[in-house]
Amino acid sequence: MNTAHKPSIIWLNVTFFLGTFILATVGVTWYGFIYGYTSAHWVWLLIAFMFCGMSITAGYHRLWSHKTYEAHNFLKYLFAIGGAFALQNSALHWSSDHRVHHKHVDNNDKDPYSAKRGFWYSHIGWMLREYQAARYDDYRNCRDLQKDKVVMWQHKHYVTLALVTNFGIPILLGAIYSDIIGFVLVVGALRLVLSHHTTFFINSLAHVWGTQPYTSKNTARDNGILAFLTFGEGYHNFHHIFEHDYRNGIRWWQFDPTKWLIRSCSYLGLAKGLKRVSRYRIEKARILQTMQTAQGKIFQLPNAEQIHAVLEQELQNLIAKLSECDELKTQLIKSAKSNVKEKYEQALLRVKIEQLDLTLKEQRRRWYSMINNPRIAIN
Ligand SMILES: [Zn+2]
Ligand SMILES: [Zn+2]
């Protein structure tokens, strides 16, 4: 393989990822066979894994990278410490990379972990060579975060925080339970490797494995299994199109504990201003994507042009109705926020939305039956 043109290897990262992986697999197994583990090892592994994971998902990702809600300082400090424990660089650096990823998704020259450069590259390869050297300290896309005291505190003390948490927590637990090596292996190495690779899966697997219900303009996929491993981040197709929504899994049955955490925090007064995309906009994206996917099937049918024209007309009517509902809903939210006593106007808007919802329901049913069986469009 010709590697002459490739940037130089970052030996610190290579050694670190390899070393922790060997400790987490060979080390943990070997020690387990000889000395064994207790339930305390596994319970603390789970707690530490959740602390790291949720600090990344609710903190680094949904709070700082995308500003989907505002958090109390207590929560911010917790995420800053948990993020350092997860050892994924500072929140400022992580968010900067992540914002570039969203802005230039799948662009092999600009997306720092472009899935189009292959699974290995998007998973871990991008961190093993000096691919990012030119823009490493460029945080111009995070000027807002540079004004956040907690973000800058963590950025300044990142190495200290990372060392104190990664050695301090396992050693402290080991001292309490009289098994320092066992806890360093399980809560230190194994937790770190699990936390790293499940997060990395979002850049790799979540861009190749799963469905695309909302858009096929980028490689991001929705995947329930990945959501289970990543505290809800597996609904990545939805996330890439609606990145400012604090939810990733929007259905009640979708596993998104990060969303549940943020919502719970809002009940406790620790989070506010939770952003949600209106259901009409979500539905619009879904319907457009269904049409996009169905095109191939439609054009294989006899009378394809005619069927397509009818479906396209139905689609436009449906989109117009969804936009109208969305507009009214926005008006309703705005008028509810204003202190003006416009109760009457609000009640009218509500009634209008309810009526439109009824016709929308019928229109939607007709359109879906046509798209599932396009022949009936011209019968
Ligand atoms: Zn992505
Ligand atoms: Zn994101």
UniProtKB/TrEMBL annotation:
Domain Fatty acid desaturase positions: 42-264
Transmembrane segments: 12-36, 42-63, 167-194
Xref: CDD domains: Delta9-FADS-like (cd03505)
Subcellular localization, as worded in the UniProt entry: Membrane
A Gene Ontology molecular function term of the record: oxidoreductase activity, acting on paired donors, with oxidation of a pair of donors resulting in the reduction of molecular oxygen to two molecules of water
A biological process term (GO) from this entry: fatty acid biosynthetic process
Keyword Protein transport included in the entry's annotation: no
Family as reported in the entry's similarity comment: Belongs to the fatty acid desaturase type 2 family.
Record-given protein name: Fatty acid desaturase
Organism expressing this protein natively: Vibrio thalassae
